[in-house]
């Protein structure tokens, strides 16, 4: 029976998920003597999909072999299950990634070419507050290129500028190579996890990083959702699960309702893209630098080697306190001649120094509970993931809020996200593989939600929402609009994310520019389509109606600098300023109405047979120069607009023309 099943498709790439399984099948079927003859044909085109947790400080890669097999965490060449998110560009042109790059960071005097924190830079603008704050701690240089932050490295006396997504691609290439070595197969597809509150730029650039390695991204999966998948496979009892994901550089909270074993509904999501273990490290480094100066009267040396040494001992002390120790040493020898930095860090002092950051995570939890219309008592289980969730005081705070009995110990904090990604990768791979049988139903059905509203900037900076926050994606919506000027040659607008009526108070994502084919009077119909795909990536296209003329969004980095605020703050700000936003919307509508009257009056003058050509020219010149051009002034106030309307009415009366209201 085994022979006939095997013979029906003896060399099927899809029949065996990895080479090791293929070999086992050959041997178990009694074909070990033929293995050498068949192997080249069997393995030549073998391809697999993997799950990747692309972390700020550490990465994990995992693989699921079959529907019934457990997820395997793949070790790197050093035998470790986590790989540092570090890339070293050596002066001779060589590139080191992961563990080897981390050793360069620890042991080299010149660490300016050792790059990390690409996850904190990817999709960011140079003047974003988080980038400017982090630059004080980084040992490498960041330069501004058209609003985008780039790493600066020196190799062979040449200066190179490297984009964050290129550094992420180097890390992904190493993870891919580790997986291919372990599985003895070609990795062609992957699922990569991202923070739930990653914006559209960050998602696009992460996907681009994977594509630079030659991998196809089956899905960008939100990190807390990945953890929920890993938890759901092992636990079928809990119905409403809160995922608390505190990693090295980002923090996410999601509440997921399990409809059944394979269907997950995200009820609420929030987070902070700049809150994690590195921020706790920065607090400790800053504290001990100040203590050293206070105690010895000298500033702590501001050179890469000494800063690196201090950071290393602070990280080590933090990790000791996150396990069994209640006190740890912070020691750096020979900081200055015959002067050491020698202190103790107690758990109480650590909690005091980082307490504000720890408690900030609770306010984000409250935001997600509010989104989901739930109370803490209605949460069945809390899943702690991310290395920083090991911190004892964090677990104490969560236990106080939800009860210690609700904290799940069912998944590995540092492996859960990669495990969920691997499960999703296997599921999507199974759906997409060529097969003569009917297409398989997906094992998991995920319903994610849009964290912030998406829309376009209209004239006078009014924000028109295309997709409201809380919408389940994938989703699609089309906005109909029209040209606002006679003989308009192009349509141009910006795409924003946020909750305020005035686009200046939202986040600019990109620009859409369409050169029009049919030029004529104002009112030409345009259709703008917003589509958020399964990866959470926004696609925007604009179409000139009745033609095939269309264009798509171009991502930009020249928006106003972003401050690091969580989604709750953005929503609360919009709620608290509702009256201001309503007044702004009403004022813009007043300007729209006045502008429409101006164009209506122009057409009426052009069609008025009682007026001579000279009179028409004179009146049209007044309308254009004195009113239409001035109406475009964005500094205009409600009073000025109303005064202009009255003046316009009076001017028309001078020529014996009526004013249509």
What would you say this structure looks like, in words?
Belongs to the heat shock protein 70 family. With about 650 residues, the protein is α+β, with helices and mostly antiparallel strands. Among the domains are: about 1-45, no CATH class; about 85-165, 2-Layer Sandwich (Nucleotidyltransferase, domain 5); about 450-575, Substrate Binding Domain Of DNAk, Chain A, domain 1; about 580-655. Helix content is about 40%, strand content about 25%. A 7-stranded mixed β-sheet has the order 19-18-13-14-15-20-23. Strands 1, 2, 3, 4, 11 and 12 form a 6-stranded mixed β-sheet that branches. Strands 22-21-25-26-30 form a 5-stranded antiparallel β-sheet, with no helix packed on it. Helix 12 (about 345-370) packs parallel to helix 13, helix 16 (about 580-605) runs antiparallel to helix 17 and helix 16 runs parallel beside helix 18. Residues about 1-15 and about 25-45 have low confidence and may be disordered.
């Amino acid at each position: 029976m085994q022979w006939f099943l095997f013979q029906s498709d003896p060399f099927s790439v899809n029949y065996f998920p990895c080479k090791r399984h293929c070999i086992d099948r050959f041997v178990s079927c009694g074909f070990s003597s033929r293995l050498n003859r068949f192997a080249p044909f069997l393995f030549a085109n073998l391809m697999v999909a993997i799950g990747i947790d692309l972390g700020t400080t550490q990465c994990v890669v995992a693989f699921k072999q079959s529907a019934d097999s457990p997820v395997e965490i793949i070790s790197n060449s050093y035998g470790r299950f986590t790989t540092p998110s570090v890339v070293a560009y050596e002066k001779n042109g060589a590139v080191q990634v992961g563990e080897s790059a981390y050793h360069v960071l620890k042991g080299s005097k010149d660490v300016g070419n050792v790059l990390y924190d690409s996850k904190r830079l990817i999709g960011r603008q140079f003047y974003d507050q988080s980038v400017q704050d982090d630059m004080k701690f980084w040992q490498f240089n960041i330069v501004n290129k058209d609003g985008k932050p780039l790493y600066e490295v020196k190799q062979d006396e040449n200066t190179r500028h490297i984009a964050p997504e290129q550094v992420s691609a180097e890390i992904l290439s190493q993870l891919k190579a580790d997986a291919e070595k372990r599985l003895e197969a070609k990795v062609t597809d992957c699922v990569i996890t991202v923070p739930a509150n990653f914006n559209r730029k960050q998602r696009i650039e992460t996907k681009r990083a994977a594509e630079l390695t030659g991998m196809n991204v089956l899905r960008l999966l939100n990190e807390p959702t990945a953890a929920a998948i890993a938890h759901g496979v092992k636990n079928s009892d809990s119905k409403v699960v809160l995922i608390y994901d505190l990693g090295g550089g980002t923090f996410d909270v999601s509440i997921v309702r399990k409809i059944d074993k394979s269907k997950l509904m995200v009820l609420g999501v929030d987070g902070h893209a700049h809150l994690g273990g590195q921020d706790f490290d920065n607090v400790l480094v800053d504290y001990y630098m100040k203590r050293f100066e206070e105690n010895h009267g000298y500033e702590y040396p501001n050179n890469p080697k000494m800063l690196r040494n201090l950071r290393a001992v602070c990280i080590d002390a933090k990790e000791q306190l996150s396990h069994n120790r209640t006190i740890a040493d912070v020691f750096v020898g020979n900081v200055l001649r015959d002067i050491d930095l020698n202190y103790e860090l107690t758990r109480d002092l650590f909690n005091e120094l980082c307490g504000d950051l720890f408690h900030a995570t609770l306010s984000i939890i409250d935001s997600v509970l509010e989104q989901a219309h739930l109370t803490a008592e209605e949460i069945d289980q809390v899943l702690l993931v991310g290395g920083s969730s090991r911190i004892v005081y964090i677990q104490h705070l969560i236990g106080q809020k939800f009860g210690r009995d609700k904290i799940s110990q069912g998944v590995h904090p540092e492996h859960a996200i990669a495990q969920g990604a691997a499960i999703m990768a296997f599921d999507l791979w199974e759906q997409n593989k060529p097969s003569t049988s009917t297409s398989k139903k997906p094992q998991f059905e995920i319903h994610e939600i849009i964290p912030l509203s998406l829309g376009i900037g209209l004239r006078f900076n009014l924000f028109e929402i295309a997709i409201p926050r809380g919408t389940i994606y994938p989703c699609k919506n089309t906005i109909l609009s029209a040209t606002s000027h006679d003989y308009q040659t192009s349509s141009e607008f910006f795409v924003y994310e946020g909750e305020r009526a005035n686009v200046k108070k939202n986040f600019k994502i990109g620009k859409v520019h369409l050169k029009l084919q049919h030029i004529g009077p104002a009112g030409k119909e345009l259709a703008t389509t917003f589509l958020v795909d399964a990866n959470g990536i926004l696609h925007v296209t604009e179409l000139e109606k009745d033609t095939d003329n269309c264009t798509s969004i171009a991502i930009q980095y020249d928006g106003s600098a972003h401050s690091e605020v969580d989604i709750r703050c953005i929503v609360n700000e919009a709620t608290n300023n509702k009256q201001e936003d309503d007044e702004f919307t009403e004022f813009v509508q007043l300007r729209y109405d006045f502008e429409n009257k101006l164009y209506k009056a122009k057409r009426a003058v052009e069609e008025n047979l009682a007026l001579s050509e000279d009179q028409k020219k004179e009146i049209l010149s007044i309308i254009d120069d004195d009113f239409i051009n001035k109406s475009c002034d964005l500094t205009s106030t409600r009073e000025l607009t109303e005064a202009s309307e009255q003046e316009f009415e009076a001017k028309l009366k001078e020529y014996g023309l009526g004013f249509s209201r």
